[in-house]
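Notebook, student rotation project (T.W.).
Task set for the rotation: take a protein with a known small-molecule partner, predict the structure of the complex, and write up what can be learned from the model alone. Partner molecule chosen: zinc ion. Sequence and SMILES entered below by T.W., checked by me.
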Amino acid sequence: MKAICVPEVGRFLYSEVAVPVPAARELLVRVTVTGVCRTDLKIIEQGHRDLRLPRIPGEEIVGEVVGSGDPKDRGWLGQRVYVYPGTWCGTCDCCRRDAFNMCRDMRIAGFHRDGGFAEFVSVPRQTVIALPDGLEDDVAVFAEPLSCCINALEMARVTAGERLCIFGAGPAGTLLARLAAVRGAAVSVVDPDPVRASRHRHGVPFEGVYDVAIPAVGSADAYREAFRCLAPRGRLVAFSGLPTGASPTIDLNGLHYQEQTVVGAYGCHYRHGEEAIRLLARREIRTDDLVTHRYGLDQLADALDVVRCRRGLKVLLYPGQSPARSFR
Ligand SMILES: [Zn+2]
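Predicted structure of the complex:
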């Protein structure tokens, strides 16, 4: 099969590799569509805390089950699925507190084990979620980024009527904004790029007026602004990772006098995947206007270029074909 392989940080190969053989309790999935996000760019160009090499990247995976390592899983054959990217042990202290994404033994597709930038991927049966009829693959592929947004709003305990400011109007920021609006929050989105900002109604953060601030871009400046815009009892969500050494200084006295909170959010839980699929299937979160580029696996360099330069919004790869088209 064709796959993208990262032998070492800084380069990738488009090459022919063996189709994986599913082990017991694994399913073989023919990947129909896989999303490219900034994390993939980071993995390939700079490495990542959780990356083990060599690796096939890709943590946003939708496809069809075409094989199983266990005869009793044959019922899955032909089923269209979204693949939750993590595996969890179920027994560690984090898993026992329902924080699967913090599992001490968490292994993520595209990081610790091979991901979706390939024609086929073998995945643990515990990680697949069946797609309902009528939910298209290129909508379902938003389940992973949307799951991370669900986790972020959950960590911040966002409730209806709260004022929320999102920094960054890229795919993640836009999904966060749409999800928060569905949850009844009053949402502002700010972005230094006038084209991206113009897609949203609001655009100017005011000091000290937001209940929740979420930087959806890995920028220390965004974090500084996010702190400034927090109201008393406000919560800042550390949603986007920052380059090493770029973390802004936190004014603890500010947190003390204003009773503010900083809360981390990283990845997502399996149940967030189920909730994301429900939201997408019910068309509560629109995604079709977010897809700006579609590529074959052999065009990954072009796809990464779009992500690096923030030229579009969501970039999708189609490993089974080479659509060779990009629009907008
Ligand atoms: Zn665990």
